[in-house]
Amino acid sequence: MRQRGALLLEAILALGVAASLVGLSAAFIAQEKEKQEEIMIASEQGVILAAARNFVQQNYNAIRLDLFKEAETGGSAILAYPMQKLADEGYLPASFSGDGVLGHMYGQQYALIARAVDRADTGTPQVTLSHGDLDPMSTGGIDGVLVDSDPANGEMEIEALLVTYGGDPVRLGDGGDIIGRLDSTFGGYVSEAGTARGPYANFVMDITSFAALAEYPDPGHFAGLVSLSSFGVLGSDAASDGVPDPLRRCDGVNIASQEYADCLASNEIYADIVLNHHDTNGDGIADRFPALRGVTMLDCADSGNTGVQNEFLIDCATTRMTGNLAVAGPDADIGALGIRADRVTFGGDDVLVRQTVGAADENIVQPDRVVIDQVNGGQDLSETIVDTRVVRAGQTVAKPICPATTIDGVTPMEPRIYPSPAAYSDPRGRAIVGVRAFAEDVDATNWRVRLMVFVGQDFCTNDVSSPLSTSIGYHVNGAPDVAGTCTGFDGAGVQNTGDLADGSADVYELDSSFGAVVVQTRCY
User: Fold this and answer.
1) pTM (predicted TM-score)
2) How far is Cα 154 from Cα 99, in angstroms, rounded to an integer?
3) Based on the number of CB atoms within 10 Å of its own CB, is 463 exposed (0-12), middle (13-18) or buried (19 or more)?
4) What is the mean pLDDT of residues 131-140?
5) Where on the tree of life does the source sit, at the highest rank (predicted)?
6) What pLDDT, on the 0 to 100 scale, is given for residue 241?
7) Greater confidence, 162 or 61?
8) Residues 224 and 186 sit within 8 Å (Cβ to Cβ)
9) HSE, side-chain direction, 13 A CA sphere, residue 260
């Protein structure tokens, strides 16, 4: 009994340990998933924060004018830029619409909010400048003293934040972890209404001056520093390159991905290259057509090969081209088109194939139809003789396969045969006074060739429609022994029937042993 109790206790302990391990594993997996999500959001937010800084730095005066125009209509110099604005000007990929990873996970959207303040204002927060502050003399523009770069008499400066709005709030702990993972120290999280805090509380900022904007961030959202009065654009300087991707090489790449970082760090292009023709002299007609110059190779496989001077190579498994192909030689008149392939196809059909014939490779041309333009106003070779040969009398000849119509697409075409006597002899050595060759249909794919001879005798009533066979019997006087068709004779050669001579030479059909015919076949 003691042993059973010990075993039961061990089993209970083992189950408890296993359950603890399962719980710990599940918790670890959940924590790792949350960590990866935080890294993705932080990576994306870092890219957008850098883009916002570059945008403000490169467009500082333009933003001043935008704020002045906003003040003219709304009273206060305060506005918000959607992320599409940054994307349109090349600071973010054109595919980025303003939500990104954060939008997919929490439904929040990014915006760049900005307001105009006076550097001479020592209050905290500084007051948002109004239209009256910016244009006290009603000149229709910003007062010159506010933009003369002399802080002693006041200076219009921009306070800008990268914020998120809408969607679901990010929990306090998660928000702090996300901004803590940023490479920049200027990321901020709105932990309580009207207050943004940096990572590890490295800054605390009153953001209530932006409360009039629809993009104003509530608690659980982010508010990173972009530009402050007296400090300018944070984390940037006049020597900065500004636009991170001026040629938009990285359009369409997820800015939170490693591919985006790789794109920015390289000279590779991840987007389409578009060359637009344009009008240079203002007459409304395009007269400038950009070109690619000095190109030697298009390599679909990125093999690392280099090009060859004065040669252009396309190295792809399949190359497709639309439009016309014009080949000009060194004299810009006519050149050679070289093709090294086992076949050339046109419209899905092989028109030229490379085939081994005997021990040598030969080019085999097999088009549907060939027309010679300079012959007979366009001679269709489908209508020419396709076969000429000598066959024995009585043999069959295959019909050629013809197009349904002639080149006009209307006139029907069909197989034709032209037989001519080639060689013939009478098995009995009689004089031949005439010969005729013709062909008849056997079936849909074959003809039979027939050869008739007219001999210098008249014993019978017959013609080419009822020829005599050369294998029949004969009387002693050489007359054919065919009752009802030819005159009859007895064994002594004396006529014993009515005279059946018809006044013309008797007709015999030759078999393959005594006649041959030349046949020519064509489509017509």
Assistant:
1) 0.47
2) 37
3) middle
4) 92
5) Bacteria
6) 42
7) 162
8) yes
9) 22
Which residues touch 519 (CB under 8 Å, ≥6 apart)?
A: 387, 388, 389, 390, 391, 397, 417, 418, 419, 420, 439, 449
What is the 8-class DSSP label of residue 208? G
Cβ-proximal residues to 231 (8 Å cutoff; 6+ apart), any chain: none
Q: What average pLDDT does this structure show over 124-145?
A: 92
Q: What pLDDT, in 10s, does the model give residues 494-518?
A: 999 899 999 999 999 999 999 999 9
Phi and psi at residue 81, in whole multiples of 5°?
Answer: -105, 130
CA 453 to chain centre: 69
CA dihedral 56, 58, 63, 65 (to 10 degrees): 160
Residue with tokens 């070289």: 338
Residue 426, number of CB atoms within 10 A of its CB? 17
Instruction: Provide mean pLDDT across the span 75-95.
Output: 88
Would you give the end-to-end CA distance of the chain in angstroms?
109
Question: Hey, what amino acid is at 419?
Answer: P
Strands 468-469 and 507-509: parallel
Question: Which phi and psi (to 5°) does residue 83 adopt?
Answer: -65, -25
Q: 500-509 burial by CB neighbour count: b if 16+ within 10 A, else e? A: beeeebbbbb
Position with higher pLDDT, 111 vs 30:
111
DSSP H helices in 75-147: 83-88, 100-106, 131-134
Query: What whole-number distance in Å separates Cα of residue 309 and Cα of residue 344?
Result: 27
Report how far apart, in Å, the C-alpha atoms of 478 and of each of 133, 253, 425, 517 are.
139, 103, 17, 27
Q: 402 near 369, Cβ under 8 Å?
A: no
Six-digit token pair at 106? 């929490």
What is the distance between the alpha carbons of residues 57 and 91, in angstroms, rounded to a whole number? 12
